[in-house]
Predict the 3D structure of the following.
Amino acid sequence: MPKMNKKQIEIEISKLLDFSEPKFNLEQYTTPSSIAMEILWDAYNDNLIEDKIIMDLGVGTGILSIACGLLGAKKLICVDIEKQNEFETNMSTYDLKYEFIQNDLSENIELPHVDLVIMNPPFGVKNKGIDISFLKNSMNCSNNIYSFHKASTKEYVQKFIEKNKFSIIKTFNFKFPLRNKMAHHTSKLKYIDVICFKIKKRIKL
C-alpha cells in the first residue's frame, strides 16, 4: 500500500511547479491533479502501478510520474523532447527512482518495454496527428496504456486503437481547464472536452 491515500497524493501533486513559460508549439499544459488521480487511482486498483515500471510519454513537469512514484511504482521512465526546469525541480523534491529519455515522440522511436504507459500528449492543435504518433510509440513498448485525447477525435482514435490490436477497456470523460498562459489566449480560463482511453493489447491465446 502507498504511504499516502488518493486525496493526500492529489493534494501533494497540486503543489508541484507548473510550466513557467509554456510553449505553444509543444502544447504544454499540465494535467490537473484531480484528473491525474482519477486515472492513476484506477490504474493502481488494477495492479498496474505498485512495484511496476511506468513510462510517462511527454512527461512535462512530471505530475503523472510523481503521482505514480507516490503510489509505489518501482521505476519511472520519463520521456520528452526536452527536460523542463520545472520537471527537475519537482522530481528533486521526492526520492523516486527515475530515468529521463530525451526524444522526439512525433517520430517512431525505440523505447524499452514497460508495464504501463501513461500520457497526456499534445492534442494535435498545433501539430496535427502528433497525439497518434505518441499513441503509436506507446503501443510498441507496453500492453497497458492510459492516453488523453480531445473528445472531438474520439472515433478516429478508437479506430486507430482497434486497428492496432488493442482493446478499449474503459473511457473517462473530463472538462479539461486551459488557463491563460500563452500570448494567443484571449480568455482567462476555458474548458475543452477530453477523453482518456484505458487500453490493453489483445493477447493471442
